[in-house]
Design brief:
Oligomer: heterotetramer
Strand content of chain D: under 5%
Largest interface: C-D, 68 and 84 residues
Number of strands of chain D: 0
Structural class of chain A: mainly alpha
Number of domains of chain D: 2
Strand order of the largest sheet of chain A: 1-2
Order of helices and strands of chain D: HHHHHH
Helix content of chain D: over 70%
Shape of chain A: globular
Helix content of chain A: over 70%
Distance between the termini of chain A: 31 Å
Structural class of chain D: mainly alpha
Shape of chain D: globular
CATH architecture of the largest domain in chain D: Up-down Bundle
Distance between the termini of chain D: 61 Å
Number of helices of chain D: 6
Strand content of chain A: under 5%
CATH superfamily of the largest domain in chain D: NADH-ubiquinone/plastoquinone oxidoreductase chain 6, subunit NuoJ
Largest sheet of chain A: 2 strands, antiparallel
Number of strands of chain A: 2
Chain lengths: 484, 361, 100, 162
């Protein structure tokens, strides 16, 4: 690899580099900061992420493989990277007051968030199974640590351990899948896999490898029946980190699904094998996620199951094998990011210092003690349930629409039915806030300006995506066009 | 095929024989050296009739004593691991020498026999790998004895060894960059070439800092003064406190064999290995065109093997002198030195070397 | 000459062994070791395939996966250590605060 | 010779692998795991992967396992008094299921003899050339990964002020 190619490749990966460097800067700066000047961390983070965002958006265009076909810069990657950067930005805003309240060392926290974001971005730009694996490991290891960051809480350590063991377990399976594919096809590059596959018939070994890839990625996306880690981990991790985990790694797993299955293994011969698997997984995920969510007493756990359910909806769109479906996945991920981060932000506020107030009863009378908070929470709950005119409705509309258009009526039907079921538990929160009296005079903690900004942004975003869904959806469609 | 195997076995046997005897000899040398430095007489009692041979019989007597002593395993100890530990400590020390060339290629009975047990392509990595196993002996010994003192000693020893392993690796990497090979015989051959027509290209010429770092870190690996906290002879209870008889002897021997290894590696990497200045395969070739002196093949080989032996002995002697000259570090000083000074210096050295090599080539 | 399949079978056996260990054992340290066993098994597969395909890419994969395993082990041990500090046990069954 | 070494390494490796999950004591498991790793290094060498074999010993046996052993010593986990976890039926079922999986997989492996490879296959130079040409981006990404691991280990394991 000569100098110009190296330079060209580095230029193509500037967004990722920017994020890494921002993380390093924060890590270094943090050494010199006093507790009064810690806000510098957030400021640097925001500036770096905005810069990376601009650099990302400038990259649209024809697919350009770089670094000996290890990574590729294309519209799909750009869309995903922009989404990930948005998640990171919102995370920084959300955490600004949170890390202070919970006494989490902010330098390491933000650095890890940024490094995990780098991992997300490399998943989206990966053009080789090895890159997919390493990027997933990067983001996973960063999130294991984040989950255990809550120093005083034993639950946080437990969550980290559970996440670690099952995450590594799934990584090992994923890696075994890569090894099997490597052995069966002699090639791990997603850009030329299609070519290799078209020349040879799919051997049973290829299918075994493919199955392992599915299992490994399903673990990461918390798809039923590979979800067993998710509720406990989401419950035990610091709430801000839980928000991050439901948004980031999940979106990254879907980025991997799209890269691996829609770009790498998309030949019709193979697709007929993996499409039914994903259909079954989607059905299981939607059913179990929604049904179990009803029984939860803690809102944090309820949102954990709801995040599992939402992964199911996004999976529905994966089986359609067309641009409409792929685009609706992208759209759904953006929508879910906004709704979920918004809802979790409300949770962090209500939970108070030490994070013990997650029960539904803690939300009783929120409308009278803090009407604005109750109002945005209501918006997010309705959005998650899929009411118009919110992003949640538009997302589900596109997903089920894509399913119907490609003839997967059963999937669409189950999706819609489970959405109806989900109204039960989302509405319960709203009823709790508006219909019940506050139990005890527990004052709501002061909502910091950054949190207000974040709530405003996510609420506006949720509404905007719901009212003008076309703008983002057209972008999503443009992003996946080259795949089909 | 059969002959090849025999040749390798003979070479391995020779190396092991030399190594073990040198190790035993060093126990004597150590005591004599300390006696000289402290104005004492040193070992002089063991004798056969009237012959004490300057105390040279002491290592033999020690060996007999250790073999005949009771082998004691404390109550509650993990028997299998307690027995395995000394072997785990001695094994790496014995097999590292396999890749160190102790002489040039010999032409014998129409065969080319390289004087090196195994010429591995991955030579240096092999050394890293095997030496990283040395820590198991200390850890297992400390843990299996069911004794809190030996456990703490084992922890001290192993954390020290892990810490300095990094510096060892990093300091050798500079050599690897300069000679562009990980094969030790290639490295030695390249050290025989001359710089500007008269200066042998020994490693120390290009990597003086790495030499000091390597020797320092190797001393720490070896757990000798000034880094002897894990065991500290008379004052500190170490990881092998619960060992007696030949099992203790194996720990003891491992320490001295490791000294030979350190010396051998230093000579091979930094002092030209078996190279004698200006001695080529055909004889002496003097610099500045001062003519040549042809020598028969066997004499050249003999001189070179002898040179290697002499260099190793001098190295061992230096290690002894260091051991009896310096005071002991405190534990926090060891850790501070290892992580905050040695490691950084090794990194800087590697960086500078890499940049210079890049610019020159 | 040993056929490549034999190596692959060894790898599969080790992988399954490790997986059983992760699922059945409840000692955190042993679970971690079983994970390492699984990754090792995968590495053997990579090496066998690399030999079969005459492609050193497989060796690079092993290089990378070994590094990943080292990073994982470091983080895993740190988590176990932090749990042990507050709980004085490494038995996962005691980690049941969240089963309510 | 090759056959003998293969059977030696694989039988010892698999047996020790089984002992890793069967042993009650973490220390015992760790020692068995080290043995398995050394056997795997031997198998790598048989597959003409000398460099990776050395790395396996260096990193796995020499660093990762040392770290694990170190933590075991630090926690001073003695012989477990509790019985082995998981009931016997669970172990038997797991064993049978595992066997089925292995047999099913083994049927799929139909790779015969490997091609003869070049002299420098698996050497430092060969693997290094691949690593720094084709796979330079993964190599760079690994550095981020390791940095994360360092941060994580420090943040999670450091003793906190009460």
């Amino acid at each position: 690899m000569d100098g110009t190619a190296l330079l060209h490749g580095t230029g193509a990966l500037l967004p990722q580099l920017t994020v890494v460097i921002t993380g390093l800067v924060i890590l270094t700066l943090d050494l010199f900061l006093t507790s009064q000047s810690r806000y510098v961390n957030e400021a640097v983070g925001i500036v770096g992420l905005l810069l990376a965002f601009v650099l990302t958006v400038l990259q649209t265009g024809e697919p350009r493989p770089v670094f000996m076909n290890m990574a590729v810069v294309d519209n799909l990657g750009v869309f995903f990277n922009a989404t990930f950067l948005l998640i990171a930005l919102l995370m920084v805003l959300m955490s600004a007051s949170y890390v202070r309240r919970e006494a989490i060392s902010s330098g390491e926290y933000y650095a890890l968030i940024l490094f995990a974001t780098t991992g997300f971005m490399f998943v989206a730009s990966a053009a080789d199974l090895v890159m997919v694996f390493l990027a997933i490991e990067t983001l996973s290891i960063a999130t294991y640590i984040l989950a255990g960051l809550h120093q005083q809480e034993q639950r946080s350590q437990e969550a980290a351990f559970k996440y670690f063991i099952l995450g590594s377990f799934s990584s090992a399976i994923f890696l075994y899948g890569i090894a099997t594919i490597y052995g069966a096809l002699g090639n791990t590059n997603l850009l030329n896999l299609a070519q290799t596959l078209s020349q040879t018939a799919a051997s049973p070994l290829t299918l075994v490898g493919l199955g392992m890839l599915i299992v490994g990625l399903s673990f990461k996306a918390a798809v039923v029946p590979f979800h067993m880690w998710a509720p406990d981990v989401y419950d035990g991790a610091p709430t801000a980190v839980t928000a991050f985990m439901t948004a980031g790694p999940k979106a990254a797993a879907f980025a991997a699904f799209l890269r691996v299955f829609l770009q790498g293994f998309a030949t019709p011969e193979l697709a007929q094998h993996w499409v039914p698997i994903f259909a079954v997984l989607a059905i299981l995920t939607m059913l179990l996620g929604n049904l179990v969510a009803i029984t939860q007493q803690s809102i944090k756990r309820m949102l954990a199951y709801s995040s599992i359910a939402h992964a199911g909806y996004a999976l529905v769109a994966l089986v359609t094998l067309d641009a409409l479906g792929a685009a609706s996945i992208l759209y759904y991920l953006v929508a879910y990011t906004l709704m979920s981060l918004g809802a979790f932000t409300v949770l962090t506020v209500v939970a108070h210092r030490g994070e013990h107030h997650y029960a539904f009863t803690d939300y009783a009378g929120l409308a009278s003690t803090n009407p604005m908070l109750a109002a945005v929470m209501t918006l997010f709950m309705f959005a998650l349930a899929g009411f118009p005119p919110t992003a949640g409705f538009a997302g589900k509309f596109y997903v089920f629409g894509a399913a119907v258009q490609s003839g997967h009526y059963a999937l669409a039907l189950i999706g819609m039915l489970t959405s109806v079921v989900s109204i039960v538990y989302y509405a319960r929160v709203v009823m709790m806030m508006y219909m019940r009296e506050a139990n005890g005079a527990r004052a709501i903690a002061q909502v910091s300006p950054t949190t207000v900004t974040l709530l405003g942004l996510t609420a506006l975003g949720t509404l905007y995506l719901g009212i003008f869904p076309g703008s983002v959806f057209r972008l999503a469609e443009r992003s996946v066009q080259f795949l089909f | 095929m059969f002959v090849d195997v025999v040749i390798i076995l003979v070479k391995a046997g020779l190396v092991l024989f030399a190594l073990l005897n040198l190790g035993g000899f060093l126990t004597w040398a150590e005591r004599k050296q300390s006696a000289v430095m402290q104005d004492r007489i040193g070992p002089n009692r063991a004798n056969i009739g009237k012959f004490t041979l300057l105390g040279l019989l002491h290592p033999v007597a020690d060996g007999i004593k250790m073999i005949t002593k009771e082998d004691f395993i404390p109550e509650g100890a993990h028997r299998a691991l307690h027995t395995l530990a000394p072997a785990a400590a001695l094994f790496p020390a014995l097999v590292i020498f396999a890749v160190i060339p102790f002489g040039p290629t010999v032409h014998l009975f129409g065969r080319d026999i390289p004087l090196q047990v195994a010429n591995l392509n991955v030579g240096i990595v092999y050394i890293f790998a095997v030496s990283s196993l040395a820590v198991y002996g200390t850890m297992l010994a400390g843990w299996a004895s069911n004794n809190n003192y030996s456990l703490l000693g084992g922890l001290r020893a192993s954390s020290q060894m892990i810490s300095y392993e990094l510096s060892i690796g990093l300091s050798i990497l500079g050599i690897l960059l300069i000679y562009e090979s990980a094969q030790l015989d290639v490295i030695v051959h390249k050290q025989g070439e001359l710089l500007w027509g008269f200066l042998p290209q020994w490693g120390i010429l290009f990597q003086p800092l790495a030499f000091f770092l390597f020797v320092g870190a190797a001393l720490a690996e070896n757990k000798r003064v000034p880094f002897d906290l894990p065991e500290g002879e008379s004052e500190i209870i170490g990881y092998f406190v619960e060992y007696s008889s030949m099992k203790f002897g194996m720990f003891f021997l491992a320490e001295f064999v490791e000294m030979v290894i350190v010396s051998g590696l230093t000579v091979t990497l930094f002092f030209g290995g078996w190279q004698f200045p200006y001695l080529q395969a055909t004889g002496f070739v003097w610099p500045f065109g001062w003519g040549t002196l042809a020598l028969p093949h066997w004499l050249v080989v003999l001189i070179q093997v002898g040179t290697f032996g002499l260099k190793v002995l001098v190295g061992c002697w230096l290690l002894l002198v260091i051991r009896w000259s310096l005071p002991r570090f405190r534990y926090d000083q060891i850790m501070h030195l290892g992580w905050k000074v040695w490691f950084e210096l090794a990194l800087v050295n590697l960086l500078i070397t890499a940049v210079v090599v890049l610019l020159v080539t | 000459m040993i056929p490549i399949s034999y190596y692959l079978v060894v790898s599969a056996i080790l992988f399954v062994t490790g997986a059983i260990g992760v699922l059945l054992r409840r000692n955190a340290l042993i679970m971690l070791m079983c994970l390492e066993l699984m990754l090792n098994a995968v590495n053997l597969s990579f090496m066998a395939y690399a030999r079969m395909l005459n492609d050193m890419g497989g060796h690079v994969f092993v290089f990378l996966s070994i590094t990943v395993a080292a990073a994982e082990a470091a983080v895993g041990l740190a988590i176990i250590l932090s749990i042990y500090r507050t709980r004085e046990t490494v038995d996962v069954d005691y980690l049941s605060l969240m089963r309510h | 010779m090759e056959a003998f070494l293969f059977w030696l390494f694989s039988i010892v490796g698999v047996a020790c692998g089984a002992m890793v999950i069967w042993n009650r004591n973490p220390m015992g498991s760790a020692v068995y795991l080290v043995t398995t790793m050394l056997c795997l290094a031997g198998l790598y060498a048989l597959l003409s992967g000398a460099f990776v074999a050395a790395l396996q010993v260096l990193i796995y046996a020499g660093a990762v396992m040392v770290l694990i052993l170190f933590v075991i010593m630090m926690l001073n986990v003695r012989q477990e008094v509790v019985p082995r976890e998981g009931s016997l039926p669970a172990w038997i079922i797991a064993g049978v299921l595992g066997l089925i999986v292995v047999v099913n997989l083994a049927v799929l492996f139909r790779h015969g003899d490997s091609p003869t490879v070049a002299e420098d296959f698996g050497s430092i130079e060969g693997v290094g050339a691949q690593l720094f040409a084709t796979y330079v981006l993964p190599f760079e990404l690994i550095s981020v990964l390791l940095l994360i691991a360092v941060i994580g280990a420090v943040v999670l394991a450091k003793r906190r002020a009460p």
